Amino acid sequence: MSEQSEQILPKNKLRLLVDGKLPLEDIHALLRMPVKDHDRFWKYLEVLQERVSWKERILVRVSEHLYVVEKGAERIVKCDCGQEFGDYRINWKLSSLVYARKTAEEFDEIFTTPNKPNPEFVEIREFYCPGCMAQLGVEAVPSGYPFLFEVLPDIDTLYEWEGRPLKSASKEWYVDLTATQTEKWAKEEGK
Ligand SMILES: [Zn+2]
Asked: How remote is the CA of residue 90 from the centroid of ligand 1, in Å?
């Protein structure tokens, strides 16, 4: 079974795919495969784990640089550089460096076309990792709008689907706790 899977999607090809370097014809061949290997998710995680220097187990990838990892009894967001962003149920953007563009001049730095948003109504926020300064995300939202929380993965359901439920599975995990953090800050500010 596993040998056959190796033939279906060799790990070296999966590595190239993850790095965005797999030739297009190979990607098309993968998409056309009538039977996809059952352990692709686990192989994908293995490839991700090989690429980082830290030891915490990767549970899911959130974006190009960010992962939810298991750290002791916690599930936290971690950058590939090692920077940690705390409990994954709290929007990681709260722990990032934020650069908000609010003026026409600031918009001009990134828009080269005449078609650009109106700074009276919209602000553009760029989020950076405090550890490696990688750009982790960009959002264009109405001015003053709360940070968008793009991904709160339902990790336990995913692992159950894939046939290997996590030992730490609990209903407590799939809950957005972002407001608890902002409330805490609001209280601290009020003191
Ligand atoms: Zn980083």
From this structure: 18
Asked, for residue 103, whether it belongs to a domain, the answer is: yes
The answer as to whether 137 is a domain residue is yes
Distance from residue 66's CA to the centre of ligand 1 (Å): 8
Among candidates 53, 60, 57, 50, which has minimal Cα distance to 82? 53
Instruction: Give the predicted TM-score (pTM) of the model.
Output: 0.84
Domains contained in the chain, number: 2
* Main-chain phi, psi angles of 135, to 5 degrees: -75, 125
131, part of any domain? yes
Task: Write the single-letter amino acid at 154.
Answer: D
> Of 7, 19, 15, nearest to 43 (Cα)?
15
Q: Please, how many CA atoms are within 13 Å of residue 183, restricted to the half-sphere of its CB?
A: 5
Find the domain containing 23 and state its range: 1-51
Q: How far is the CA of 149 from the centre of ligand 1 (A)?
A: 19
Q: Tens digits of per-residue pLDDT, 125-176?
A: 999 999 999 999 999 999 989 999 988 999 999 999 999 999 999 999 999 9
